Structure formats: C-alpha cells, structure tokens
Amino acid sequence: MTTPADPPLRFGYGTNGFTNHRLPEALTVLADLGYDGVALTLDTGHLDPFEPGLARRAARVAADLDRLGLAVVIETGARYLMDPWHKHAPTLLHDDPERRLEYLRLAVRVGADLGAEAVSCWAGVPPPGVPDAWDRLVRGCAEIVKVAAEAGVRLGFEPEPGMLVADLAGWLRLHADLGHPPGFGVTLDLGHCRCLEPLPVPECVAVSAPYLVNVQIDDMRRGVHEHLEFGDGEIDFPPVLAALTAAGYRGLVSVELPRHAHAAPAVAARSIDFLRRAAALAAATPAPRQLGPVTWPPEGGGSVAGPEGGGGSVASPIDGGGPGAPSRADTAAGQEER
Hints:
alpha/beta, eight-stranded parallel beta sheet
C-alpha cells in the first residue's frame, strides 16, 4: 500500500510504437495525452544517430522535450537501422560488432545531450555457429560501460526472451562477469516477467529493485512473447505498480507496444487511461512480501533460458505461435516479436 509521501509513478510511451509519426509530432501527441516522458528509440526518422548533424538535431529534440515537459530514456532496439536486410544486425555477438558498438556509443552521446535517465540495450540472438557468444557479449558490454561511465550516463540492460540474456538470471550473471559496475542497471520489461520468469511479476520487481534504472510495461501471456495492450494478457497490474512504488523506483514506466504504430494515438490514449486507473487501485494494494538478498533462480523455480541463457521454450506469435500455442524452443522468439 502506498503512503501520501510516495511520489506517483511516472508513465512514458515508447516511440517505437509511433513509427508512422514524425518525432516532433509523436512527442506532442504523448504530451497532450498527459504522459510524463518517452522511451526514444534512435531509428530511421527518429533522431537517426548515423545521419549528419547529430548534435544539432539532438539539440532540437532536447528543446522539444523541455518545452513539452517530457523526460526521456534512450532505447536501442532499431530493427533495420544498421543493416537493411537483417533485423537487429549486427549485435555484439556477431563477428564484426563495430556498427553495433558505434550505435551504442552514439546512443550514450545522445543520452548525455538529452539528459536521459538511462540508455537501454540488450544482447541479441547468437548467430549460428558462434562458440564464444558470451565472451563477445561481455567484451562489448565492458566497452560501453566505460563509455557510459565517462559520459555520466546510466545503462539499463534488458533481458529479452529468446536472446542470449533472456531473463534476470542471465542479467545477474552478466553483471557479475562485468565486475558489478555501478552504472550498469537493468531495464525490466514487466511483460517479459510474465512470459518466462519463475516468480510472479511483483516479486520480479522486488528482487530487481536494487538495479532498476528503466521499466517497460505491457501485457503478456505465459510462454508467448507478444506485447499486448493492457487487458489482453494475463498480468494483474495494480500489484505490479504497487511493487514499483514500494521498491522506491522513480524512473519512467514506459508503454512498450512496438507493433501498434498503425493506431498509435488511440492505443496511447487507451494505455494512459488504463495506467491511471491501475495506479489508483495500486494505492490501496499491499506491497509484495519483502524478499531477502537477491538470488536467482529462486529455490524451487527455474529459468526457461537455454544453454548460456541463449533462448528457451518461448513461443513467438509472429513466428508461428500465438495465444494458446504450445511453448517451443525458438531462439529467435525475442527477435521476432521486436
């Protein structure tokens, strides 16, 4: 249960759900709807970091954000920005990850210029035949951790179903292998928790609370990696929002619906209305039980990630699965949904 001293949660919306809008127009729509911020995916048409004049264009976006009163986090899940033929390629796991590294360096630079609360990234799916994917990931992340620390920017690494780091267990392993850097936090997608984590969603929030720097919110069903509008999945949201408040989380909680751009204004309006109602109910919801030191997986639970965290039994509705479809091993599940 929240107290009068608890500040309200701050809701944002991902620009990857507004890809049919010019960025200034998307920002205006979201501000008019009453959102507190945006999760800005650097992509074609949305502050493309590879186009000339990045500093000048970033300054314009910064001015728009300031004028509209919007906070910002930076997301790096662009699909075809770096390779017009291959989705998300290259990742840090490819033989030549330099284009991805440059994208992440530029994202940190933009994050610093915009005063972003965090810059978010993920691992990617290991290419076939790569024997040292984990080592490649650690090397690449170590470089970006250094860049971000020098820029004073926090990183939020997102466990993504079907990717090399699919769950919180994988994130904890990566954090340890990097030497527990203080600026390397977690981006927690609440839908992913329902999809594959062994604990209930509110308890996922509780155990990850010390590391939370960025939160994405969407509905989802168990074992199916499909980002759904609120009410179309299985998550009971008031206890989840209560858990975020109890955890002392003060960052953005951003709607993540990357396949709803065709109806973006209407979906964003429905989403903020739902979140406001859920937040009001959360104020009267008991906080989740207090958990001890972070250990993962919890006793009696287990991760659905495969070897090296590289994919588990998660169906993708974009790739042959769907609501009610049986779970199956599909290492591309995360890549397909995004």
